[in-house]
Amino acid sequence: MNAFKLLWTAAGRRERRDLLWAVALAGTAELCAAGLLGVSGWFLTSCAVVTAQANTTWSWMYPSGAVRALALSRTGLRYAERLVSHGALLGATVSLRARMVHAVTTVPARELRKGRDGTLMARLTSDVEAVGGIPARVVPPLAGIGLTAGAVVTLLLVASPLAGTAELVLLAVSVAAAVAADRRTRDHQRVAAAARATARTGLLSARAAFSELRCLDAVDVARDQVAQSVARSRRAEAAVAAAVRRARLRLRLLAVAGQTAVLLLALSGPVFTQPAADAIGEVLLVAAAYELMETLPHVLRDHGLAADAALRLGYLANRAFPQGQRTALPATTAEPARTLVAHRVPVGVGDDRTTWTGWIGPRDVIVVTGPNGSGKTTLLETLAGRIAPAAPGTVLLAGAPVESLPAGVIADTLTLVEAEDWIADATVAENLWQAAPRADDDMLRAALAAAALEQLPLHTPTGPLGSALSQGQRRRLAIARALLRQPAVLLLDEPTTGLDGPTAVRMLTGVRRALPDSALVIALPDRHHELVPFTATHIMRLG
Amino acid sequence: MNDISGQLARLGDDDGQQQTARLLVGWAAIGEPAFRRAGTLRGLAAMGHVLWAAGLGWAAQAALRSQHRGVALAPVLSSAALVAAGLLLRAFLLAVADRAADDGAAVVQDHLRARLLLAALPTPGVPSEEVSDAALGEALDSEVGRLTGWLTTYVPARRAMLLGSGIVLASIAVGSWAVALVLVLATPLLPVNLKVIGMGTRAAVHAQLTATRTLSTRLLDRLRGLPTLVGLGAGEEAVRATEADDRELAARTRTVLRVAFLSTAWIELLVTVAMAVVATYCGLALLGYLDLPAVPSTMSLGTALFVLVLTPAYFAPARELARGYHARAEAAAAAEMLAEIIHAVPDAPAGGPSTEGSAMHRASRPGPAGVILEAVGVRYRDRPESALEDVTLTVRPGSVLAISGHSGAGKTTLLSVAAGLRRPDRGQCLHTVGSDTRCASPAVTAWAGQPSYLLPGTLRDNLLLARPDVDDAQLTAAFADLGFDDLLAALPQGLDTQVGERGWGLSAGQMQQLVLVRVLIHETPLLCLDEPTAHLDPDGEARVIRAIRTLARSRTVVVTTHSPALLDAADDVVRLSGGRLTATGRAL
Question: Does the keyword Zinc-finger apply (chain B) (predicted)?
Fold first, then answer.
């Protein structure tokens, strides 16, 4: 989807209207600016001619009034255009971002996890802003350039067809040159953007591993690696700057040709006679048109950035604005289903791959054990509909394949606590409220106690990604949060990591007591399954 | 409260504003020669404009002389030549000036990026805790880039304005001193206006940037948690909250922009009114209607056109400067953010600067290190209770010490003090290597944290960080020696395996073991491992314990763990509870 289309689709009625107004205002303002120069020159020449001919019938009041009117309207129109176009910019950015964030909620969990640090963030900030900037940075300037150049050429064609044709050709060549130069810069832009992303990823990874690197005496090496990516992006950016400079020089040289040509054609010889005042006015109009043309490379560059951003946003845009018929969502049942049916679900990896068939219903306890990499996490994510199963349609919730259901419908029935689940950078209480917005402090404390975390005060700050808590505390906070959902099916991925044996037992006991009628699916490393303080209805060994 | 008045009031009493300006000027000083050159060339480009105007004036005069008969070719050609020469001169001077400005900006930005990287990954020392990853990524990615406009337009603009406007004014004065006088009289209206523009846009840009940062911090956090939030049935809630923030930000920005644009409109008004006044004056003078004392009442058409078209050129550098003010406001807001990072002092290294940084442990092979902790206390900011309280402990050289205890008991903190990564707030930690005793230093330590990460790149790149001087065969052999050959064999691409962001592409257990191998091939007298078996299956655990036992002959090993098998393998076990040692010794 190209940038304009994406913007137009996302924009609300008000932004669309503002955008059209901005086009009209920008075009008129630039026409006034060019007109001011042209009419002033024509006015002065006419004054001189009138004096030379001693013509007393000519009134200077109207032309001089026109000059003042053009001057004032240019200022007023420009101000109005800026306000309107920036209003459209802000509104369009908000609408576009809201659509994209909404689309993000429908992206499979695995895709989100892949780019959760740098790329997704860049999509939703700089890319959205680049596309959202079109109403102020691209469309109005283009309208101004186009309208002015068109008006000037039309006027010239009427007054002096030869001069008009020459200018038409030269202005067209200027546009073509600017567009060609822009094509070349976009390749460099892409290289620069890729290198910047690499640098960012490298930097964040190096910081995550800082203690290791410090002991390895390798901080300098890691920093140099990031610096190399930075240098690569810098070189590409310098190439862009050079290309823009060259484009501007080329446009200025074309302006030399254009202005000289109109001067010669409008004034010289017996063939192209026209009043001197008209000729001078035309020359100045053309000068104004070329001055405006000089801004074209920058406008095209902004457009190029927006177009690239729109390309990168493509996969989200396709989710936000699906082409063709929308698939009807299955009607949500009044009562959430309480049973998950697995029919020949693929489990395990490689040679150990088998299938599993069974019911996960009220009060069931299913323990999944196996060594690292044996597919415990994959099984839990498949059951929770977070990833498309290797064989589609094998996990059924209320008779529908779980992977086809909207995430909200799944959330009514089951809750998955991932191995490294996300903790918001807020307080313990705010994290718990995500699951139960209306819960009071007593309910929150009860949930914490059930997860063996009663000693943690509700106002404790959690830090970015829960870094102010220990690993075991993070794990138990995520479990307490899940308990507040009162899910019919609770899936826990390695809930005992970072916990000592007694605490792990206390936590698992608390979970069972808090959800006596729910089904539990617990993935544990091999030896930990002995810790489960209640009878498992089914133990699944992988690997 | 009215937003704008709030913004402007904040600007009024903001002492930091001056400081930011000084900061920016200081940074720009590195590229100063280039900026000076750019300013001079841009100023001189006004000469091209003067030639162009002269050519137009000449052409008009020639046209007037030969009404309706067509102008003779000679005067048209020569005036066209003058116009072309003027435009050519301007085009080339501006191209060279732009290049100089771009070069200067590149020098400054390179310098700033290097300093950012140094602040993010300092040697020696630890990055300041106040600098968040999000702020760093943003700074490196876009904040430095936000200085470009200021560096290339504003910094050279002052010089360009003085020179360029001076040239144009002198030329106008030659044509008509009265018009020059009008322009000189209009000039004092400019600086006031420029200040207003500066204030208005600075407030706008600052509000936007500050709010954007808050928004983006919140947004980043929510996006990270989006899978979790969706799973908790709160995805829609997150979308709504984000949009509400966004709308508020947009509304605020719109209010401030109304003021900022008003001041931009003022300078345009000045330019256009000046043009209208000059046009009217010249027209009346040409018509001979003027009858004023002391002011010339006649004028030739050539002169009139010459001064008319030069009038906007007189104001053009000021307009450029005004546009520079926008860039300056943007740069100032970015500078505050950059300065926060660049000037965040790295926390001092635990062992003092002299003990870190050199590869002294690699020069010779010292024996295993001993660790002595004396009455060590550690307290984290924002936490009321101490993380460690009065811990006294000695680790014998060549022994394996396991630290056990409940989650949150302070095990990791104790380990990082022992490793020399964290300086204790009270008491001291010493390393003894041979007969040498000194402050604890990461230079004698190998560390594997929890969670542990590999860097993006190939597995080989990651391992070479630990031992830059080895080849593939030696690396493969090291895997075998340590008993991890299965691990390497399980990776289809072996040493060429690509590691993504935060180790993406490998399982948690694989990554943990690979980080461990990286640590083990880095030969140091002390090995500190934080829960090295947390993500491992029994096979992996047994493998790690075997490796630790093998290495313990030549190194000292300190581990934190819950694993009974690893506790059994240790020579000594200490138990932490609430930041205090509650039991030491073998029998626990």
Answer: no
DSSP code per residue over A413-478: HEEEE-TT----SSBHHHHHHTT-TT--HHHHHHHHHHTT-TTS-TT-B--GGGTTS-HHHHHHHH
At A294, list the tokens. 């000089």
pLDDT tens for B27-65 read 889 889 999 999 999 999 999 999 999 999 998 888 887
Distances from the Cα of B77 to the Cα of A45, A373, B73, B350, B355, angstroms: 20, 83, 6, 79, 79
Residues of chain B with CATH 3.40.50.300: 353-585
Per residue in B160-186, pLDDT (tens digit) is: 989 999 999 999 999 889 899 989 988
A264: domain CATH number is: 1.20.1560.10
Q: Which residues in chain B are contacts of A249 at CB distance < 8 A?
A: 91-92, 94-95
> Which residues of chain A carry a pLDDT beneath 50?
324-332
Distances A71 to A149, A285, B92, B265 between C-alpha atoms, Å: 19, 15, 31, 12
Q: CB distance B524–A215 less than 8 Å?
A: yes
In a domain, A329, yes or no: no
- CA-nearest of B330, B344, B345 to B20 is B330
Beta carbons within 8 Å of B466's beta carbon, 6+ residues apart? A216, A218, B518, B519, B521, B522
- How far does B192 lie from chain A, in Å, by closest CA? 19
Confirm or reject contact between A205 and chain B (CB < 8 A).
yes
Lowest mean pLDDT among A488-492, A520-524, B411-415, B434-438: B434-438
Which of B129, B578, B241, B213 has the alpha carbon at shortest distance from A430? B241
Residue A270: per-residue pLDDT: 55
Fold held by B3-342: ABC transporter transmembrane region fold (1.20.1560)
pLDDT digits 0-9 by tens, A89-148: 889 988 998 888 888 777 665 566 555 555 776 788 778 888 988 998 899 999 999 999
Cβ partners under 8 Å of residue B337, min gap 6: B135, B138, B139, B143, B209, B213
A37 contacts chain B (CB < 8 A): yes
Is domain B353-585 annotated with CATH 2.60.40.1940?
A: no
What is the amino acid identity at position A115?
G
